[in-house]
Amino acid sequence: MTASIHPTIALLQNNSLAIVVQQEIERAILVGDYLPGAKLNEAALADKLGVSRGPIREAFRMLDEAGLVRTEKNRGVFVRNIPVDEALEIFDLRAAMDHWVGKRLAESITPEQLKELKTLVTGMEKAVKVKDAHQYHVLNLKFHDRMVEMTGNHKLTDTYRKLIKELSLFRRQNLTDSVLMATFLAEHQLIVQAIASGDAAAAGRAMVDHVMQSKQRTIDNAAVRAAPLQPGGH
Questions:
Q1: Which of 7, 58, 160, 206 is the most exposed place for a label (fewest CB within 10 A)?
Q2: What confidence tens digit (pLDDT) does each residue in 160-172 have?
């Protein structure tokens, strides 16, 4: 006779599986396998990932809480399409957070941490030279994530990561232009120089300027995309 699984153990197993499923669906969304507006099919995902529908439904719930999908009653679950106004709000919030991050690191960064940031920037330089947008994007995300993590503020890190995931749904097109990659790189180099100098005000300002430049590029890109819809647009 097969021993029954204790209810608590069963719950932990299901929760652990749901987390793994959630992480895999999130990864697929963030790399662009599922584009904004795409419907996520519960049965198809269960079959693809080799799990029952229960963990898929729980993963959908967690992704909804994280702001990456939206659940519509009687219609299903869809990858969120972040409107430009919401994206701009995220940029403003990120600027306030990054201002503090820059100042904090200028005052507290260790030699080992500074070396790590410089190594990431060197990697971005190489990616720019060979016009590898994907590698640049990966290093760019890690560069900013590590800076926030280096402050030691866990609440800030969690909040920052949620905002970046939401923003990634909106601005995947920003890092495909080699000219823009070079511009971003120069801004990163300036940030590291300011932090290395120990000048908290300059580091905070460099971080804010970087975010505000990204915000302006987003506004410009949105205007270009909307132009054909305007009277007389081509």
A1: 7
A2: 999 998 888 876 5
